Amino acid sequence: MPIRSIETVSIGFIGAGRLGKALAWSLATAGLAVRGVASSIEQEAVDLANRIEACEVMAAQAVVDRCDLVFITTPDSIIAQAVAPLRFRAGTGVIHCSGATEVDALASVQVQGAAIGGFHPMQTFADPDAAVASLPGSTITIEARDDELDRLLVQLVERLHCHVNRLPPGMRGRYHAAAGFTTQFINALFYESARVWKSWGAEEADAMRAMLPMAHGTLAAIESVGIARGMPGPVSRSDVVSVEKHVAALTDLGDDMAAFYRVLCGVTVRIARESGAVDADAAARFDAALTRGVPAAST
Fold it and tell me: What is the mean pLDDT of each run of 10 residues along the chain (299 residues)?
């Protein structure tokens, strides 16, 4: 890819969903030249372009023809399909924004002489406007098969006031799963907590009002002193009796609830043991409390 200044690179988007909007708006706000957008849903493209001066809705091939750097922000499952019929010129940079999809999905682009890569913001995009506000300070994972494209992507990350993370080929599935633990699985934790509250007649809103401040407090502690030292709860203070009470109470609500608790609490025991917060004897007592009454696996 030819050396270009970030100030002169023209940027286009193929795909105008929540991620495409948030990223295009963020780049434009950072003073970069977002010039074109294409989408199979025209209104989505119009909504994206209307917020950016000099950005036009056009066909996908026109985006490729007119822009130096093309973001593919379609659904993950159709990235390869979206670029397959397009004609790319040598020197164009083409990147997708999927966390789980390997860069090889753009192989049909690379054989035409374009530089390919990945640009995945580690942020949630349920609401594009909220994502624009929360993106600064986030980490963006980049992968590039071309040194000049790599340098350009680093500049983009820096202009967005984000942090660079590099990912080797073949790691995207593992990387994306790791991100899931601290994004969508938080929803699962709150769902189970609210389910327990509902067992005595409370509403989900009651649970959220009580639990959200505690969750914020835990995140603040993790940010301040790290995962292990920032962990609250009975395991962190060697309180086996409370864990026994938890298991008994949750078993009354169903085997699935108790099993979910056992798995999560078991992880906290491992964290506490590895960090030295509990000794081997305490860890063994926790393990016994968590496995009591669980049928042994058949061999």
Answer: 81 97 98 97 98 97 98 96 97 95 95 96 93 96 93 96 90 91 92 96 97 95 95 94 95 93 96 94 95 66
Are 60 and 14 in contact by the 8 Å Cβ rule? The answer is: yes
Other Cβ atoms less than 10 A from the Cβ of 141: the count is 23
For the purposes of burial, counting CB atoms within 10 Å of the CB of 117, is it exposed (0-12), middle (13-18) or buried (19 or more)? Answer: buried
Find, among 289, 257, 284, 261, the residue nearest to 272 by Cα.
284
- For residue 184, the surrounding DSSP H or E stretch is helix 184-198
Query: What are the percentages of helix, strand and coil residues in the chain, rounded to 5?
Result: 55, 15, 35
Residues 174, 157: Cα–Cα separation, whole Å: 22
Radius of gyration of the chain (CA): 24
The torsion angles phi and psi of 187, rounded to 5 degrees, stand at -60, -40
Contact 98, 120 (CB under 8 A): yes
Spatial strand order of the sheet with 10-14 comes to 56-57, 33-38, 10-14, 69-72, 93-96, 115-121, 139-144, 163-166
What's the confidence (pLDDT) of residue 297? 54
pTM of the model: 0.84
* CATH architecture group of domain 10-170: 3-Layer(aba) Sandwich (3.40)
Q: Rounded distance, CA 54 to CA 168, Å?
A: 36
Beta bridge partner(s), residue 95: 71, 117
Nearest to 157 by CA among 26, 12, 17, 10: 26
Is the backbone of residue 3 left (phi > 0), alpha (psi -120 to 50) or beta? beta
